[in-house]
Amino acid sequence: MEPKAWWIWKPMNSSCGRGIKLLPSHLSNKVLNRLEQKQGLVQRYVERPLLLDGYKFDLRLYVVVTSFDPLKAYIFQEGLVRLCTERYALSQSSLKKRTMHLTNYSVNKRSSKYVPNRDGKAPKAPAPAPPEEELLYNEEDDAEECPTEAGLTEMNESEDESEDEFNEAASGSKEEPPNAGPNGRATSKWTLKDLREHFESQGLDYWALLAKIKELIVKTLIAVETPIVSAWHNGANYQRAKPGPPAPNQTCFELYGFDVLVDQKLRPWLLEVNTCPSLSSSSPLDKRLKTQLVADMLTLVGLQPYLEVTPHRFAEKVPRAPRVTAERLLSSGLRLRDLGEAEWSLILDAHDEYLRRGSYERIFPDLKSQELFRTQRYANCVLAKWLREGGEDCFLPERVDLRPNWLPLQLFSSAC
């Protein structure tokens, strides 16, 4: 263990920055005994994050998973950039400053330096703010109610350490306007578009960072794929009273909120994944973004009414095709058009879903990440086969060589 490293401790089953503590590598027995009595998660603290005008920030990204078997995931084109309200510095004396180290909106919204993003609308007349230690939470003041602890508890009993050159350069003046964004906008919450404009003004590669973030999200989903698929299959009943075509595979979906931190080398670090990300709208920006988020998500999912008897998907009788192995699907010896009804049902579901994506981008299925699975599931291999053979191009009118003769011609081959 590195003797000068810092660590962050998060309590289990908590949220909104409650109970988070910064820890040095060396702790007293008293502190260790206190920690052992609680359940929590320890992560290496990213000591040199990328800063925006001297302020620490993180990204809230929205990901919709419409299925885990096969895995199908989409990322929303916009997201939130949440900034701290006090300039960043890492020193012994700064460890209690929650609004410097924690990017949580629930923490920073109660700071007198918090500037709401009005999304281009005229700002409200500022009201005089009491000192931070006397700020009282007003439940009507914000839609995202979440009480937090009074301070970021520092649990080190050793002597203070001096700040290094990085902290001196990052600290700046406390009297400067916080979080000056693109075009002079001074707000504590940006959009990804604002971040992209800032990166371009600083000569940073935004698209390279976004590609790394997408890889991080896909790897995270694959890491938890096995237990989720197992629980999903145990809770689903695919038995039918009467013989017929395969039942629809999609029985549920999930919206995740991925929180990502970026360091000085433009490497993304996963902070956490939220299964119930807040959809409250505490500002015009939140309302605009989250309204489109939910509307496009429901269109993407394509909720269908339950039918006791599922109608046959294909008008003509489909010739019986033997089920091939996952290994053969991954090979080049099998033609896409030779697959059977069950396989083409998976492909058509993926294609129809893609046409309904709206403001979402599909990040999986993706051939680059296919090899990361411990177990190559049959449904994933079917979609991988489809992507290798042309993906969406298979449904173009001129590509009849890629489709079986019994498959009806699709009316649309591009997004509606």
UniProtKB/TrEMBL annotation:
It comes from the Eukaryota. It catalyses: L-glutamyl-[protein] + L-glutamate + ATP = gamma-L-glutamyl-L-glutamyl-[protein] + ADP + phosphate + H(+). InterPro entries: TTL/TTLL_fam. Keywords: ATP-binding, Ligase, Nucleotide-binding. Pfam families: TTL (PF03133). PANTHER family: TUBULIN POLYGLUTAMYLASE, TUBULIN POLYGLUTAMYLASE TTLL5. This is Tubulin--tyrosine ligase-like protein 5. It comes from Durusdinium trenchii.
